[in-house]
Amino acid sequence: AQQQLGREHQGITLRGSAELVAEFFSYGINSILYQRGIYPPETFTRVQKYGLTLLVTTDPELANYLNNVTEQMKEWLYKCIVQRLVVVISSIESSEVLERWQFDIECDKTAKDDNGPREKSQKAIQDEIRSVIRQITATVTFLPLLESACAFDLLVYTDKDLAVPEKWEESGPQFIANSEEVRLRSFTTTIHKVNTTVAYKKDSVP
Amino acid sequence: MAQFLFEADLHGLLKLDTPIPNAPPARWQRKAKESGPGPSPVGVSPMKPANRSHSSSKTPSKTPGKSGSKIQSTPTKAGGDRYIPNRSTMQMEMANFLLTKENDPAEESPTKKEQQKAWAVNLNGFDVEEAKILRLSGKPQNAPEGYQNNLKVLYSQKMTPGSSRKNSRYIPSMPDRILDAPEIRNDYYLNLIDWSSQNFLAVALDNSVYLWNHASGEIIQLLQMEHPDVYISSVSWIKEGNYLAVGTSSAEVQLWDIQQQKRLRNMTSHCARVGTLSWNSYILSSGARTGHIHHHDVRVAEHHVATLAGHTQEVCGLKWSLDGRYLASGGNDNLVNVWPCTQGGGGDFAPVQTFTQHQGAVKAVAWCPWQMNVLATGGGTSDRHIRIWNVCSGACLSTVDAHSQVCSILWSTNYKEFISGHGFAQNQLVLWKYPTMTKVAELQG
Fold it and tell me: Is it the case that residue B247 has pLDDT exceeding 60?
């Protein structure tokens, strides 16, 4: 918390921006897992963040798994070599992709060169992040029910020549065959801009 | 006619009864083989060059038998199930061409490739071919066996099992009276009905307000908006029951005298529709779509005496406490704010409490009549919980999952209970015992 206060006065640096965005992903993914019922709601606990009450998992294995992703994303965001993070929700029995949450990242590469921090208040960024998270929560009003038990997958689109780190492997994009897409709000730290869309399988039965 | 017989004989000799041997397996067969050993944790094998991925799902799959089965018209011979009597109507050449075409896709001209690439960059924002897709392995185990995604249970069940305990008093399961309300606006965020202390029910139907006299059953049309596009967004009776405050979609707050059926005041101070109103003796508070709450002193000409800015989205719930000390507001931004009746030091109104725990819009806001400082709030579709708070300490005294969007809460003055009204998905009324939070009754209608 002290670090963040300091940052508020200094403006946004590349490292700060990477941390903010990685943090957003961590809370965003937790929210998606809770709202879509991928894991039982009893395994989530409430925390205060961005002036909201958010739900994060208490399952140690899952928390550890998500931490790995967050740490890795921080690094990649700092180097500006990641373009997209995707949360794929698929049915366990049929392996069919039912929902696909896509977070597009636009990185301003010039931030790597100039060392001065950018002008944007923490509060403004927090407000924007808050709107996106609220929208994710509200999607339950229109997303089709996930009938069967589902599992999730995390995909990251990076630069082609990146060395694949340990624990990661190459994969396909796992698109949805017949999908409906909804564009949610975006937020920007002036260095990184994140656009969110959710694609879901169109109901075959009217 | 003889020549047709000859032709038929000729075709009979030439026809093939067995499926084509050594044909390349159909695409779906190949896929089934690949994913045969169950959902592999290693991940799906990388697809063909990424710029084709948009169209890969739409690629047609032709099987040898498919083109034949559609045109089959003669009855099958007994004892064979792959009998295709008349192959002359099938387009063997076409089928063959399509089958073999699938095997080498890279037949496009260079310019077409360029175009596809340009489209891919356009759509994706970056060159997808240049991107690598990585997947984190070592996925944590999924939810335990027997865990059914509770949302399905939530939104599809019709009846929740009611309380098995026998109620000590009789609660009718059918309504006493059903009133017709044509044209009533189906908008969660509006507050269109209010019951006065004089036993009048005010109902806003689109652009008019009707009063129903409970004693006589008489219906009076109190007012109708002049402009056809304007609708009423909220109604609220003053405590004495002789004046009615009406909020409109054109951001006006009107004050009407019931005895004379005349409009007394038209107060404009908001910029967006006024979805909710609440009285505190001579102060009328109004909440608007902008998230602002205005206090109006209805006795003076300069009615707009204060502005409370605590919400960033539409204010849909607004209630003064019964002792007039606090004003509770709920908004579409999932916040509940509790405001004091007097300004703070700096001349600004700041909330004494802000509750962020609701995950949905808070429209249901109600103060407990027999316990000081106790507030009940209910969340919308994404939340579905009812929460009881102590506004002095800020603690959440209890929470209960109501399984449906909570539209309103009313405390009883005769029993230690409160009733909640629900919308999606069960559209019911639930009577709860306080403070045990057990369901006393559930009313369907």
Answer: yes
